[in-house]
Amino acid sequence: MELRQIKYFIKVAELEHVSEAALELHVAQSAVSRQIANLEDELGVKLFLRGGRKIQLTSVGELFLEHVQRAMLEFDKAEKAVYDFLNPESGTIRLGFPISLAAKTLPNVISAFRKEHPQIGFQLHQGTVKELTDAVISGQIDIAFVSPVPTSHDDVKGHIFFTEKMMALLPASHELTNEPYLRLMQLRHEPFVIFRQGYHIRDIIMKACMQVGFQPRIAFEGEDVDTIKGLVSAGLGVSILPEITLTDLPMRDTKSIEIIEPNVSRTVGIILPSKREIAPSEQVFFEFLKNYYERLNRFGY
After folding, report:
1. Which DSSP category does 290 fall into?
2. Among 32, 74, 223, 272, which residue's Cβ finds the most Cβ atoms within 10 Å?
3. Tens of pLDDT along the chain (301 residues)?
4. CB < 8 Å & 24+ apart, contacts of 227-231
5. What string of DSSP letters covers 264-287?
């Protein structure tokens, strides 16, 4: 079985047409037909039902396609790994991030990195921490920013870059906006605007409220920081958000206040796969991140 045969088979299966597949592959139609026939002879089964202008996969052909597509993905990864090893200052890093880090952390980091390594590109993938973790494990993405950072996961390694406070966000007209700080218990009777289930920020808020003895009354759920800030601005409830989401362009009709009891915070960092080596270009990015946040922490984040 040859790699060329597999490539021809996949292309014909995708297009359901031998001549169109040959056109995309830039080879003669007879060459494609011959390689498919050789593959079927070697396997001892018919992979396609032939009839009319189009051809279709047989049931065993569909089964074969499923496996060889996964195999080709591994070939592509192997080819990329060799290329990245030979060219650590080029290539593309598939980087995941949660929405709470999209506005400030991600643009700042990538901008600083590209100044030093302009030939390395990025494919960006947004998702929840669970979605990003699963994607790193499966190899769909290479590295992901996450918060909070897992410290005891079997399949990923977590690296914490900093810890940030979670701040109370109140409508500007709220009676507590003149307070220098808040105890979370002071918000026990307020309607809350928080992230929907599946977002770790929600879990942090719920745990903190339960810690001081109440369950928050949830008025609105969302999955976007700006939407939550907008609902608070409209006076529809209070929220608790990471400090980093409140430093740039704060909304005019809201006020953020530090919570001193309990300590509500989250870790921020990245996850890497623990069961495979990262590519040299990804290692370059990882080392940059460690130095970048070490400098920020040294001078006060």
Report:
1. H
2. 32
3. 888 889 999 998 888 888 898 898 899 999 988 999 999 999 999 999 887 678 889 999 899 998 988 888 888 877 777 776 666 677 789 999 998 887 778 888 999 999 999 989 899 999 989 999 999 999 899 999 999 999 889 999 999 999 999 999 999 999 999 999 999 999 999 999 999 998 889 999 999 999 999 999 999 998 888 899 999 999 999 999 999 888 765 567 899 999 999 999 999 999 999 988 888 888 999 999 999 999 888 765 5
4. 228/193, 228/194, 228/195, 229/169, 229/254, 231/193
5. -EEEEEEEEESSSPPPHHHHHHHH
User: In a 3-state reduction of DSSP, which class is residue 224?
Assistant: coil
* pTM as predicted: 0.67
Sign of CA dihedral 290, 159, 285, 104: negative
16 and 52 Cβ atoms separated by less than 8 Å: no
Beta strands 265-273 and 143-146 are: antiparallel
As separate numbers, helices (DSSP H) first and strands (DSSP E) second, the chain gives 9, 12
Cα 243 from chain centroid (whole Å): 21
The helix (H) or strand (E) run that includes residue 156 is: strand 156-171
**162-178 burial, b for 16+ CB within 10 Å, e for fewer?**
ebbebbbbbbeebeeee
